[in-house]
Design brief:
elongated; alpha/beta
Length: about 325
C-alpha cells in the first residue's frame, strides 16, 4: 500500500504542477477511503476428522466463500452435489424420502469437484461444476458445512486468494487434500470438527482529484484508475506462480493520457465545461474508488453532465485502424 500512496502523490504533484485546483475539504487533492485489501487466516482455523488433526494449507484450506464458524458433525458423502432436471440427474435423489431431514440436516457434506462422469460429454452442463452453486444447493438441503474433495486428478483444485475478500456463504466451506480425502472415503461414519476464521485486512486507498474550474454551468469527469493487479491472482489471465504484473497497459496508459489531457485543457482556454480529473484507486477490486467518490458527494452529481473513463488506451485495431469507445449500462 506504500507503493499506492507513492503513486497517488506522484499524480497529485502532476495535478498541482499543471495548475488544477483541489475540490475536497481542507484543500486536499487526495480522497482517502478504506478498502478490504485481502484476508488473513487466524490461529483459530482447524480440522479434525475422526480425532485426527490435519494441517492448514497443507492438508486442507478454507475457500474465500467460507463463513467464519466452528462446526462439529457427521460427514455425509453426496457425490458431486449437483442436480440437473433436464438430464434426469440428482445426487440428492437417494435422500428424497420421509427421512431426508434426518439424513441430511446438520451434516457436513463431502462433495466431489467437477461434474459427474455420466454428464461430462453433455453440452451445457458447465454450470454444474460451479462451486458456489453446489454450496447454495447444499445449504438448501440442510448442510452445516461443505468439504470439497476430488478423486479426478485432472481437475484443478480451487484457489484460496488471500488478496481478495468476497461476500461469504452462510456456512464454512473448505477443500480437503489427499490425506483428509482418504479418511473421508475410507469411513462410512466419519466425524469432523472444523473451525474457519478469516480476518479482513483493512488498508487506506486514495483517489486523486484535480479540478479545472471554468465557471461553467456543467461539469464533466475524465477518469482513469491507477491501481493494478499487483502479483496477479484469479482475475489475471496469467495462471502461473505469482509474479509482478507491470501496470503500464492497465492502466498507466490511461492515467498518463488523463494527465496530458489535463495539461492541454488547462492551456487551451476551453471553457464549455468545468472538468474534474480523477485518478481512481481500488478499481481492480470492484470499482471501489469510483463508488466511494460518487457516494462521498464531493461535488453535486446533478452538476455532472458526462464522464470519459480511460482504461488501457494504448490498444487499437491494427487491421481496421479503429478506436473503440464503449458505453455502460447506466449510460443513455
Amino acid at each position: 500500500m506504500l507503493t499506492m500512496l507513492k503513486a497517488a502523490l506522484f499524480i497529485k504533484n502532476k495535478f498541482e504542477g499543471i495548475g488544477l485546483s483541489p475540490i475536497l475539504e481542507d484543500s486536499a487533492y487526495l480522497q482517502s477511503f478504506e478498502i478490504v485489501d485481502g484476508i488473513n487466516l487466524t490461529e483459530d482455523n482447524s480440522l479434525l476428522i475422526n480425532g485426527k488433526s490435519y494441517k492448514l494449507m497443507e492438508d486442507y484450506y478454507p475457500l474465500n466463500i467460507s463463513a467464519n464458524a466452528k462446526i462439529k458433525g457427521g460427514i455425509i458423502r453426496v457425490g458431486y452435489g449437483v442436480k440437473s432436471s433436464e438430464n434426469h440427474y440428482d445426487d440428492y435423489e437417494y435422500y428424497l424420502n420421509d427421512s431426508e431431514d434426518k439424513e441430511l440436516k446438520g451434516k457436513i457434506f463431502a462433495l466431489e469437484l467437477g461434474v459427474p462422469p455420466s454428464l461430462k460429454d453433455v453440452k451445457g452442463v458447465g454450470d454444474l461444476e460451479d462451486i458456489e452453486l453446489k454450496v447454495k444447493l447444499a445449504i438448501e438441503k440442510g448442510a452445516s458445512a461443505v468439504i470439497f474433495i476430488k478423486s479426478d486428478k485432472s481437475i484443478s483444485q480451487p484457489v484460496l486468494d488471500k488478496s481478495k475478500f468476497v461476500q461469504p456463504m452462510s456456512i464454512p466451506v473448505i477443500f480437503a487434500d489427499q490425506q483428509a480425502y482418504k479418511t473421508i472415503m475410507d469411513s462410512n461414519n466419519a466425524i469432523a470438527e472444523l473451525s474457519v476464521k478469516f480476518e479482513k485486512e483493512i488498508k487506506n486507498a486514495y483517489n486523486v482529484i484535480g479540478y479545472l474550474d471554468n465557471k461553467a454551468k456543467y461539469t464533466i469527469v475524465i477518469g482513469a484508475h491507477y491501481d493494478h493487479l499487483g502479483m496477479g491472482g484469479p482475475t489475471s489471465r496469467y495462471k502461473g506462480e505469482p509474479v509482478i504484473h507491470p501496470g503500464a497497459d492497465d492502466n498507466a496508459s490511461g492515467v498518463s493520457a488523463m494527465i496530458e489531457l489535463a495539461r492541454k485543457e488547462k492551456c487551451s482556454g476551453f471553457s464549455g465545461f468545468n472538468i474534474i480529473f480523477i485518478a481512481f484507486s481500488g478499481e481492480e477490486k470492484g470499482l471501489l474508488g469510483s463508488n466511494y467518490f460518487v457516494k462521498s458527494k464531493a461535488i453535486s452529481l446533478e452538476k455532472i453532465d458526462y464522464m470519459f473513463n480511460l482504461d488501457m488506451v494504448g490498444r487499437i485495431d491494427t487491421v481496421n485502424g479503429k478506436l473503440s469507445i464503449l458505453d455502460v449500462g447506466t449510460s443513455p
